[in-house]
Amino acid sequence: MISIQSVNHNEDSFNLHSKEGVSYQISVYVPDTAPPEQGFPVLYVLDGNAFFRTFRDAVRLQARRSAKTNVLPMIVVGIGDARREDFVSERRCYDFTPPSSSLKLPKKPNGEPWSETGGADTFLAFLEETLKPQILENYRIDTENEALFGHSLGGLFTLYSLYTKPSLFSAYIASSPSLWWNERAILAKEEEFRNNLHNETLHKKLFVSIGSEEKSHMVTDAQDLAKRFSAINSSSFSFSFVEAKGENHMSVVLAVLSQSLRFISLRT
Does the keyword Hydrolase apply (predicted)? Predict the structure, then answer.
C-alpha cells in the first residue's frame, strides 16, 4: 500500500519504493477537465525534482485551449529522488546509464570520480513493474498514449528505453541526450532498433532536441542521430528534431518545451 497525499485538488505526491528498496518521490498532476472516454494521456518526467513543476505548469496553461495550442490535457508524472530537492543526484548516474561489461568514460568536469553506473535495466523494470501499474490503478489514463521525457543522462535513458523496450511508451522526448556515454555504446542499440522498425506494429514517436551552444560533440552527435532517423520511411514511426539556436545545455529544455508537448499531442 502507498500513501497518496493531495498537494491540492489536482496534484498528488507519494513515495514509491523499487524492489531494490530505492525510494522515489512521485508527483502527479491531473487536469481539471473530465477525462476523455479512453482516459488521459500521460507524460512521465525524469528528474522530477527539477522538471515536474515546469512541465506541469506548461501543460496546465496550454491545455486549457487545446484547439489553439495543440497541447492535449494530460497527466504529468514526475519521478524524482525522495532524498533530495535539487537536480543533482548521484542516483541518476546509476538509473539512467546502460549496463556495460567495459566502461570507458572521460573525467568528470569537476575532477571527481564517477559514482556507480549501469542501472538502466533496473530502473526500466521499476517503471514497468512498479510505477506504471500504480498510475494505472489510481488514475484514468490512456494506456496507448504514454510518453517519457528525459534530459542529458535522462535523454540517454529515454533513447535506451525506446531501443530496448519500445512497447513501454508510445512517445519519447530526448533532450540533449548524452550520446557520448561510454564511447557512444548506445549507437549499437540504436542500430538494432532501426533495423527492426519494420516489425513494429504500434506507432512510436521520437522528439530529440539540442541547444546550438552546447559542447560541439553534443551538437554533432545529435545532428548525426537526426540524419539517421530522418532517413527512415516508416508508417509506424514519427521523428522530430530541433536544434535551438542560442540555447545551452540547460536552457534548451524551456526553449523547446511547447514544441515537444505539441509533438506528443499529435494524433497518429
Answer: yes
